[in-house]
## 1
Amino acid sequence: MKKSWITSAIAGIVLLCGNVGAAQADDLQKIIDAKTVRAGICLTSEPAGFRDADNNPKGYDVDVANMLAEQLGVALEIVEVEGSTRIPMLLSDKIDVIICNITATTERAKSVDFSFPYLRTGIRLLVQKDGGITGFQDLAGKKVVVGRGTTGEAMVKQRAPEAELVYIENPGDAILQMRQKKADAYIEDSLGIDWIAKTYPDQLMSLPETYSSDPITLGIRKDNPSFLRWLDLFASTYVSSGRYDETYRKWWGTEAPKLNAVW
């Protein structure tokens, strides 16, 4: 099978960046030497990442991780993470790359480097159909489910400071809170919110407004210029090649949100 040009470019990228911190090997070379890339993926947020009936990891992010490992020419090791553990596990060297719905923010960028985007989403509210909530202006005194350290948590604190926050570790917990009517609303990106609303249409609905436009990126440890440049190239060609739209349609059944390839 003919190697992709992106795979062939690895050696050149490593050589180009090799003079930066010669005493410290870049993670890209470590991954190539180990013949394995450890991808931290959230597996409780269907269809982005989940386990099927046989407990096998499936979903959009799993497909992207498989493509990434294939382009690197190494095996893929999937390590399950959650929103609250993905960065700590990266920084403690338990994973090599975060592929778990992470948006690039200035705060996160203090400890993590981000690639070009491989997906785009936006924050939305999931509400009880009979709850009378039409937007942030109705959340005062209401119980709102949020993930700790997420973009949604920050947005509720800013736009609805009188809301009562209910913290969860994964989207499965959020669905349970909403289905049991222990919460009035759930704030998360549209990828998960729209899927939940579609799955439970008799009780829950996604409000039509999208409150942000967020690029989803790949996250790695700092001081890895070779690996970061490689991931930029991977993400950009993933979009420009049509694989982005193809993979998005596979899992969400609609046209992918517009995302421009940088290269």
Note: The longest strand covers residues 214-221.
## 2
Amino acid sequence: MDSVCQFVTASSIREDIVRLLANQPQPTPKLIEKLDACRSGVYKELANLKQRGALAEAEDGWQLTACGQLVTDTIARRQATEAFLDEDIEYWQHHDLELLPDQFRRRLPDIREYDVVRGDMPAADKHVSAFVSRIEAGEEPDVLAPVFVRGLDDAIPDDPNTRVLVTSEVRDRLLGTVGSEPERERAFLNAQVRVVSADFGLGRTANSLCLVFPSRGDGEWRATLVSETNAAIQWGEELFEALWADADPIDEPEEDSFELTGRRGMVGRTRSSDSRSPY
């Protein structure tokens, strides 16, 4: 026998019935009026849903049981995911969420509306500029930088309230020397910096959330997801807090530890072969 959830979602009429009852009980005549179905079909499905324990009949009409409410919540999450993907299905078909923590990946559709800024010709760096400009314009940003992007260190406020997460490869680049001056001193003298293992980027301010996921196949940064919804900003704050709690304090690299070896090349070139940003 199918589960209750499978049973409800196998029929559009059943789905519509539980959706209409999600907020308040309703009598049969009102349901018949609102549903795109014949009277006999509505009576039949109400009886079926009652038999499966999703509905109960009360004085003021039909109402969801606890079972029915949980099924309705599951349907709502599915619909939210479908709407989220439909915003830019091509982006999700060609990017990797492998290292995004499971609990945050499952909640990703909660951010709702977003735009994807792609680095297409002739504006090949448009996606990078979208990330950097929002960090520069925001207050007390939280930044996860899995790649060394020239200009990002200038955009991030060197302030005690600023928190920056970097990979060990980016740490090595920041702690390397440029001439006789340590680059760490030039980049982040006052900001809080920790080291984390991550293959995605995040920039969160009070006004926006930027996400960078590696493209499938070559792992390159080709697009930036930007959202300004309150839900997105909250989601980004909670993700950053979780990563920050597990991150390690930044420390001096071992001698000659400048080779950048990010998965599938996302981190970029080695320092010894080319000191320019890969972007």
Note: The chain has two domains: 4-76, 89-265.
## 3
Amino acid sequence: MFGAVFGDVLMNTSTGVKLNFALVAGLAIAAIMSIQISDASPQSIPTNSFSPSPSFKLAKLSNPWLAFQNATLLRAVMSGDLASAKVALLRGANPNAKDKYGATVLVIASSKSYLDIVQLLLEHNADINGRDPFERNYYYLTPLMAAVEEHHIEMIKLFLSKGAKVNDAPDEGVAALDIAIEKNHADVVKILLQAGADPNHYAVGATPIYSAASTGYTAIVSLLIEYGADINAKAYGSRKTPLEIATLNKHLAVVKLLKQAGAKQ
């Protein structure tokens, strides 16, 4: 849209000073944008905890044209506009652009189940793990975790085939496996375990099998046992075993399964 006018020059008739139209347009665009994006480098960490929203402010980038393209990409991803996302990337948008809460465009596309945009971003070398491991912010999901939360099997398999870190746990040890257990998605649990998910890591003070046993998810407990989960691992806080918490919560099918596997009280 701007290509046809980049060569145009404006003349100030009173001073005779020539103004480059592209520079004026670029600065004007940067001044009025209401979307905050960033490049791949870490930005300042927010001090107030609140949920991500579609409201953004423009980051201080030195190149107004790239700022505009990054903002265009972010808006395209938010709305599922594949065509606009393609144009923005071809014009130099950063495939790892972030919103003000630290969520990359790949995480956003994953959380909205936009598979075509996810594929496009990966083609443009977006970081498949979606965040700086040294940056703590309030949008902790990796792209894989977002896909797991949305129960998007095709996207989950795509990320795993492209080398996504299945055990990445950016917040309190919570990994993709823990999200699948929380959602009671046994099919996703199996996919993640087959891909090397750790069945014995601790997330918020408990192992996956403890979490599954406490909620009575028999099929998931069975899978975790099959893939080597420690059936006697105690939770940090309660100091209870999976069998004890299943008994306490009266999940009799889980109790029976754990006893058959040799679990101890």
Note: The chain has 13 helices and two strands.
